[in-house]
Amino acid sequence: MQLSVWTYEGPPHVGAMRIATGMRGVHLVLHAPQGDTYADLLFTMIERRNARPPVTFTTFQARDLGGDTAQLFSDAVRDAYARFQPEALLVCASCTGELIQDNPSGLAHALGLPAPVIALDLPSYQKKENWGAAETFYQLVRAFAPKTDAPRTPKPPGARFSCNILGPTALGFRHRDDVAEVCKILAALDIDVNVVAPLGASPADLARLPDADCSIVLYPEIAETAARYLERTHGQKIIRTMPIGQQATADFIAELAALAGIDPANRSFGDARLPWWSRSVDSNYLTGKRVFIFGDGGHAIAAARIARDELGFEVVGLGSYSRELARDVRACAEALGLTALITDDYLEVEAAIADLQPELVLGTQMERHIAKRLGIACAVISAPAHVQDYPARYAPQMGFEGANVIFDTWVHPLVMGLEEHLLAMFRDDFEFHDGAGPSHLAATPAPQPVPAAAPAAGDIAWSADAEKELSKIPFFVRGKARRNTERFAVERGLSVIHIETLYDAKSHFAR
Are 133 and 168 members of one domain? Predict the structure, then answer.
């Protein structure tokens, strides 16, 4: 474990909370100190849920450590069952509660409650949030869809093909909208949805998982373990293609249709506008743009495919914080001629972005902060995300409508850069100069910018004419031009950058 200002994933008990909060009829009792109740905010503030997560905290305090914390936990479990009457109880300890070693599993089972009690062993100092979510979901599936020696009941003649949709959770990046989009695709193929889990599912729904003909793994970080269990114990086929992007959605439909024995031709799957839009955008401004991608494993791999094959970007960096999918991310990077960056240290990610100097960053909320600091355009493609990435509107990432949303999300930061460039070009115009003020507001003079402080001794200084010329460069590549020019000057022992130095550096790096 490493102390950090930011973290890509929380501890594994946060993953358990995501599963419990996404389901119906499930309650989680967490043996945790008072400070660990912060996790409530993730769902009520970030995801803007209209109800508290179904979680009871023992909330022991420092003075309780000299007493019987085990009794506190037992009382919390008993009270939670009496109050909420869940169909199933999950029990585990937070990272701090784990150190006390009160044995939540044994304590909960000793109470003899009438509901099933599922004890979660979540090693907080070795594993993280997505693993905790996957393990919790797997344990629930094992408990309610156990292996049986009874032969599978044959489907009646004329019965429709059915599937499970596995992986969406509470606090997932666009999960609700993704599920809706995938359900539209299945309806167009005349395929029934057996169970969507864990999001919106109850323990009784989990018991029906074996009835489906196949399982669709929407998010491998969460659903892969449970899907492999259903394949091993109930013979269910697995669809692993994530339908993110135009081509991946087409591949998903073809794979599912082949398994179901359905002809997908002449069926309507939505309005796929991304191909024409991507061809219609001025290639001088978008094609070949250097892009850096970082996120969870599934979304990072999907983004790399879209960036290269559907939008014509050049992927210069690819990485993920998901160690469970590190092998897949490395294989994707190798196919692009890159070395994958597998890390959960945002400082390593920042150093990689600064070194590669991309023109667009596709990442998480943390990469958005990094890109803003470096003056680079950015779009969020993966959790962890901010409240603004949980929009009220319908904004899926999957399916053909998701491809349209992705096009807008990725291209607009670059297009807005062109607008800034036009404003800079006409900066000296009588109507658009800096002192004129915004055209859509009252005609009041804009405050004059405060002159920048003179560089400290030993730093490289910029002459006025060089600074003016630099300001004409679009803002989304201006930082890169400044860094390249300063590096060019340092290599040649120059202490002041003139306009000629800027032109020489431009010629040098254009080679």
Answer: no
